[in-house]
UniProtKB/TrEMBL annotation:
PROSITE patterns: VWFA (PS50234). CDD domains: vWFA. GO terms for biological process: snRNA 3'-end processing. GO terms for cellular component: integrator complex. Gene3D superfamilies: von Willebrand factor, type A domain. This is Integrator complex subunit 6. Residues 3-227 form the VWFA domain. SUPFAM superfamilies: vWA-like. It comes from the Eukaryota. It comes from Sparus aurata.
Length: 484
């Protein structure tokens, strides 16, 4: 169920009129309605949740949140007025905090216990603004700054205000007051040069510089296609480039950093056709080894930093041992891998500092071109799978699920190198295999008592904050209706 949050600029400058005879605010409202009609063509849109935030101070800028109906969203949209300042930094922070309000209650971020791509709440923020100078009570600003402080409990657990399943897109209206005699340029819509653009890009989104109604419609068509269930990951090469393929035409050797060396892209997390929700087995590891004596968790980057090695490895899969497969969004990295035409080899992936005794960490999966060479997939496996999978293969084929003392010693040695939060996933996998008794029931998951208690306390605080927001918003609505 994707969340589509519209952040509408309601600064006074949105009252300026275009050559079409409408104000920027009128165009923004019309864009929202057009987007909803385009999105409504997709049967999957029946699960969409729409939210509306404007540039008023929190919490009054939240016009439609988690509790409001579709009818309330439409009414609040039509009632928007342009009267304030261009305080987009504070309003963006409000939008992210609103999206993150439920996450500590549901435990979707799984702090300190690995990142599960299949635990996600896909959200797209679509900001519509005129791109004017950023203004606040303190004057004019040249750069976009989001407030560091927030009333949302637990915000210190993630370095950024957004999460890996939230992307920001901006429609920056540049439609002139006088009709242009110059013909419109053909092709794609360029990004804007306003301060919101870097913020869009860092979340995995982008901005659009809109000079006409035709360009606006083109952008809305593009945005509807961006509604994908997935999470953003930073992929970065480690080690040397791969050697040129023997049977490939002579490649032009390029020195220095190449676009495919570092990509910031989605992996698609498809819902299960039977249940309608994603299903998975293994997490992406944390960038630290859990310390049961630590009273706090280190802050996490919103997007995991996954390194890939270009050394060809054998793609390992064993019957009965589950794995997860995610398609990568097209990028220079996927293009480079597909051009090498090697669907029977793979590149292992790592998260630095995830292991106890290795800075690079152990492989938790691999990148591999599909057999048809039409996409690249990320396979997520058990941690340090090159050691575990042969052990499990021997357990099945050689020992017939009756492990020897030597096998048990090897398995115990493996467990010492595995982050303890993998225990739950491994226990489920062993149960699927038919070997449910290999792990002791009392094995620890790696979080200290104080961290577990703190996470429970945060969940309770968030519930209280939600009740406060609802009280304030309901009081505000009641007072507005009384004035009317």
């Amino acid at each position: 169920m994707p969340v589509l949050l519209f952040l509408i600029d309601t600064s006074a400058s949105m009252n300026q009129r275009t050559h079409l005879g409408t104000t920027y605010l009128d165009i923004a409202k019309g864009a929202v309605e057009t987007f909803m009609k385009l999105r409504g063509r997709d049967p999957a849109s029946r699960g969409d949740r729409y939210m509306l935030v404007n540039f008023e101070d929190v919490p009054f800028g939240i016009k439609a949140g988690w509790k409001e109906s579709h009818a309330t969203f439409m009414t609040e949209l039509r009632n928007l007025q342009a009267t304030g300042l261009t305080s987009i930094g504070q309003s963006l922070r409000t939008a992210f905090d609103l999206l993150n309000l439920n996450r500590l209650v549901t435990g979707i971020d799984n702090y300190g216990q690995g990142r599960n791509p299949f635990f996600l709440e896909p959200a797209i923020i679509i900001a519509i603004s005129d791109g004017n100078k950023l203004t606040s009570g303190g004057g004019v600003q040249d750069e976009l700054h989001l407030p560091l402080t927030t009333p949302l409990p637990g915000s210190e657990l993630t370095k950024e205000p957004f999460r890996w399943d939230q992307r920001l897109f901006a429609l920056v209206l540049r439609i002139p007051g006088n009709a242009s005699v110059e013909p419109e340029p053909l092709g794609g819509v360029p990004p804007d040069d306003s301060p919101i653009t870097p913020m869009c890009e860092v979340t995995g989104g982008r901005s659009y510089s809109v000079f006409s109604q035709r360009m606006l419609n083109q952008c809305l068509e593009s945005l509807v296609q961006k509604i994908q269930s997935g999470v953003v990951i930073n992929f970065e090469k480690t080690g040397p480039d791969p050697p040129p393929l023997e049977d490939a035409p002579a490649e032009v050797l390029k020195s220095g950093v190449q676009p495919w060396h570092c990509c910031h892209k989605l992996i698609y997390v498809r819902p299960n056709p039977k249940t309608g929700v994603p299903i998975g087995h293994w997490p992406i590891p944390e960038a630290f080894w859990p310390d049961q004596n630590s009273p706090t968790l280190p802050p996490r980057s919103a997007h995991p930093h996954v390194r890939f090695s270009c050394l060809d490895a054998e793609p390992m899969v064993i019957d009965k041992v589950p794995f997860d497969k995610y398609e990568l969004e097209p990028s220079p990295l996927t293009q480079y891998i597909l051009e090498r035409k090697s669907p029977h080899t793979c590149w292992q992936v790592f998260v630095c500092n995830s292991a106890k005794y290795s800075d690079m960490g152990q492989p938790f999966g691999y990148l591999k071109a599909s057999t048809a060479l039409n996409c690249v997939n990320l396979f997520v496996m058990p941690y340090n799978y090159p050691v575990l999978l042969p052990l499990l293969d021997d357990l099945i084929k050689v020992h017939k699920f009756k492990p020897t003392i030597k096998w048990r010693q090897s398995f115990e040695n493996y467990l010492k190198t595995m982050p303890p939060y993998y225990i739950g996933s491994l226990r489920k996998a062993l149960r699927i295999m038919g070997a449910p008794n290999l792990l002791a029931d009392n094995m620890e998951y790696g979080l200290s008592y104080s961290v577990v208690s703190y996470l429970k306390k945060l969940s309770q605080q968030v519930r209280s904050l939600k009740r406060y927001y609802l009280f304030i918003l309901n009081s505000s609505t009641a007072s507005q209706e009384a004035c009317v």
